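Figure 2 data, in text form.
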Amino acid sequence: MNIKKGLKEEKNIFKDIIERIKKRDFSGNTGIVLKNTIYQTTGSVVAKIGALIFTIILARLLMPELFGLYSLALSTIMLFTSFSNIGIGETFVTFVSKELGKNNKSKAKAYASYLLKIKIIFLIVALLTLLFSTKFISDVYYQKPLFLALIAGIFYILFFELGNFLGFIFQSTNDFKTVAQKEIIFQFSRIILVPLAILLSLKYSLSNEEVLFYVILMLAFSYLISSLFILSKIKKIDFIRTEKEKLNKNKKDKINQFLLITSVLVFSGIFFSLIDKVMLGRFVEAEYIGYYSAAFGLISALSALIGFSSVLLPIFSRLDDKKIIKGMRRSIKIFFILGICMFLITLIFAPIGINIAYGKNYVLSIGMLRFLSPLLAILPLISLYNIYFISRRKPIIIAKMLIFSTIINIVLNYILISSFIKYGYLMAVYGAGIATIISQFIYLFGLMFYKKNFNN
């Protein structure tokens, strides 16, 4: 009876959604979620299809060795990006969205201004740190021609963070349409500019290091173009024009405490997702990083198509406990079913997918794609649980699990890569894959355990 009742309830919900879309009825919390989901899903689909197309084009143009160097350079740059981010985005959306939900625009602007100042300080520190460490990273740690690419990474971080911060402003006001438009512009820009830079570089027989420099530089300019677009729309955000309220010490301490926790969360999260490539860069030849990155690129694109959980953050931040728990249960069911289906499809059709996407030069990526496919059932759920705890203002739970999982990930990566490398570079790459899957499972189960105790 409970199963029939649940199925009937889900059927009624589906009918209600269809009716709302037909009538363009986006009133109430349900309407806001539906509208945001449509735009967020559109932006996510465009982003991941664009990322997939972009990855395929790059992999085919650069070939495994140069593509591996590109992946390694970008992973390193993204680590420095985490220093400039330090969880400001999550803090911004949580606090500003909460105040806007109360129609307290002056306090929302105060929070926004305060976080902007912090953002600028950490951005400058991150850029200077990268500038003065590029030589050591490229020549001593990796011993690969990445110096110029990391220099171009300074512009990448600057323009990426500009667009990111502006995007959080629109997210906090539930304007996901503009964020989706920004993503579309970025995807089209990089799909045009970066391949053009590669073709011109190859035409003039530039070195691998010079090719990578122009690839990262064009990526940076693609972010600049999309950032300028979203900046042109900032005038329609009414709370920006409001006279800001002065934040007292207690409010600053509260936001600083939340920011401190989310900074650990963000840095650990990015470090967690990139440590495999960074450690592989120390041990294996670039082409094997290329094979691994090609497979992981498909996993990332497919998992992101399943999940659209970031759309729930502004809504969850405004709902009471019972409504959040109910919405969370429905979301878990949907994400789990979609994840399992995608896992099975990838497991079966991996050879076809790799051959169509990357060609015969990436045949070694087929086994890696199959090996990493369980992540398709894990990553969307992890994203959902992260949003849940952030909306409940309990990022400390995520931070604890991220730190614990990251330590396990680092230890496992080092042990498995260094142990397996005696059997060849390919086995070392599989060692990194094992470490990633185990640590992601541990992270997910930890979040599930905390949620169960938290609700009780």
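Caption note: The longest helix spans residues 28-85.
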